[in-house]
């Protein structure tokens, strides 16, 4: 679609029936981010974790006509400093052919409205440091890029090893105090 035609964009909550579409969009995002080797999600795991009895997150699909143009996956978190909930945007992806047509802005505006309606103190997300076009886009919306913060992550064996640590362990003589 040519840019600046202002297509009618709909932002709709995803359902379990959208699992295959969500997986295709996740895979397209991973290819764009050069991380496709990390995708282990399946339609089944998406159905279980997003639409089961205790959904871990929410998904919206951006549509133009009958076509999916992009998606966002998000969840509520909490700010201890603000003592208020927050909205964390895990992933926002617009298919390349729909970029520049207002799809990303429509999705972010939809999520910002949800955050305001819920009384959230903030809405946050991460962006890869090499994704200058996204960083520039976010800045045009007024987003502050938090250069001083870093993401910390535990996965796989490391996550399991930390989970096995004793909660009430007391340091002995000569032990580091923080263990």
What features would you describe in this structure?
- This protein has 179 residues and is an alpha+beta fold.
- 31% of the residues lie in helices and 22% in strands.
- The chain has a five-stranded mixed β-sheet, with helices on both faces.
- Helix 1 (19-32) packs across helix 2 (43-51).
- The longest helix is centred in the middle third of the chain and has 16 residues, at 103-118.
- The mean pLDDT is 92.
User: What does the largest sheet look like?
Assistant: 5 strands, mixed
Question: Low-confidence runs (pLDDT<50, min 5 residues)?
Answer: none
Please give the CATH class.
Alpha Beta
Q: How large, in whole angstroms, is the Cα Rg?
A: 19 Å
Topology pattern, helix = H, strand = E = EHHEEEHEHH
Number of alpha- plus pi-helical segments: 5
Tell me what portion of residues adopts beta-strand conformation. Answer: 15-25%
Short description:
The protein is 31% helix and 22% strand. The protein is of the alpha+beta class and 179 residues long.
Topology summary:
Blueprint: E1 9-13, H1 19-32, H2 43-51, E2 58-64, E3 67-79, E4 84-94, H3 103-118, E5 122-125, H4 132-140, H5 156-163
Parallel strand pairs: 4-5
Antiparallel strand pairs: 1-2, 2-3, 3-4
